[in-house]
Amino acid sequence: KAAMEAAKKRELKKLENRYFLSAFDEYIEEQYNNGVIGDVRKKTYMTGYGLWDRMEKYQGKRYKLNEIKTEDIYTFRNFIINECDLWRKDSNGQYKPKSRFESIYEGYEYVRQRGVEKRSLNYVINQIKYVKAFWHWLLRVKRARLDDIFLTYTMDQAVYGTPYFFTNKDRDNLFKADLSKRPELAVQRDIFVFQSLVGCRVGDLKRLKRSNIVNGEMLQYVAGKTKNKSGKIVTVPLHPTAITILKRYEDRDDERILPFISDQKYNDAIKEIFKLLPKLDRVVTILDPVTRLEKQVKLSEVASSHMGRRNFCGNLYEAGFRDSDIASMSGHAEG
Q: Tell me, what's the pLDDT at 225?
């Protein structure tokens, strides 16, 4: 028994002496392999990994777990907010890292392609929440003898504006719109309208197979975000238009219900569709995520796949459905 205790202490000491990024990477892989997080959440965690890695490169130091203090979380917060200061716009209006910071972005081609602009506080909050979840995993699962650095960290409050969505009439007009000159966009329009009629998250939407359609009139699936909390099966009666869309693509040699593309291309296509349809490209008031003040924008500037989910929920609210009924069909957690 004494030998076992000594071995455990050696393992704990070894863990506590590991570099932050090494342990964080192990955490992400374990959560993913155990089904706690899916593909979309894993990408989000890896974004946080990249942010921490670039912070370390900027500072010229590598953090070990047993060296990290609460003030280092504030440093991370500041880096996320101010990383945009490491960038400049060239003569063509393209974002590029300033020459003295080029080395920080080696291996981060996706960041180079997109550039880094001013980030919202909500974005910062989410990234820090992922680090917090990782740290508590170290304390509670791995039993690491580390300080709970989040006990004295003051978490900012996320702020969201009033959700914008379009009406059933707008949805029907979108479905009937003539996009024959842009057939590739017509396909993505159909997918967006289908999402607006079933309300699932894009991650769930893209993995749906023909077997998820029951008796040709009902969609059933387990929502990925809450599968480990409830495992409840979400059931959505299919609207006639949704059935029409499914039939339109049923002859494809693919088990997935619709011809999906990448999340980013799907979001880009949705914006492009609204640009082509000025009668539907209405102005909405949103909360600017950076300034946290209201501003007016066109749907073609802000529409995304998540708007399809809001269209579903918003129109059910307008029709007088109860919260619990909407949640049962949208896959939201209870309450």
A: 65
Cα distance between the two ends of the chain: 47
Residue located via tokens 């109860």: 322
Type of residue at 161: G
Q: What six digits make up the tokens of 267?
A: 């979001």
Q: What Rg do the C-alpha atoms of the chain give, in angstroms?
A: 23
Structure tokens at 52: 């921490």
Report the alpha-carbon angle 48-162-223, nearest 5. 55
Q: Within 10 Å of residue 1's Cβ, how many Cβ atoms?
A: 5
Q: What share of the chain is helix, strand, coil (3-state, %, to 5)?
A: 55, 10, 35
The DSSP annotation for 217-248 comes to TEEEEE-GGGTTTT-PEEEEEPPHHHHHHHHH
**Are 126 and 45 in contact, with CB atoms under 8 Å apart?**
no
- Those residues whose C-beta lies under 8 Å from the C-beta of residue 9, and which sit 6 or more positions away, are none
CA distances from 306 to 94, 170, 202, 323, 326 (A): 27, 17, 7, 19, 16
Minimal CA–CA distance to 239: which of 221, 218, 254?
A: 218
Beta bridge partners of 220: 235
Strands 95-97 and 87-89, bridge-based pairing: antiparallel
Bridge partner residues of 143 (DSSP):
none
Q: How far is CA 94 from the centre of its chain?
A: 25
Which is more confidently placed, 14 or 213?
213
Look at phi and psi of residue 231 and say left if phi exceeds 0, alpha if psi is from -120 to 50, else beta.
left
Token pair for 200: 């699932």
**Residue whose C-alpha is closest to residue 23's, from 80, 81, 65, 53:** 65
Return the DSSP state at 255. S
Tokens (6 digits) for 67: 């060296």
Span 219-228, pLDDT tens digits: 999 887 655 5
- In which residue are the tokens 């993505």 written? 188
Task: Please check whether residue 301 is in contact with residue 207, taking contact to mean a CB–CB distance below 8 angstroms.
Answer: no
Chain segment 154-192, per-residue pLDDT in tens: 998 887 777 888 889 999 999 999 999 999 999 999 999
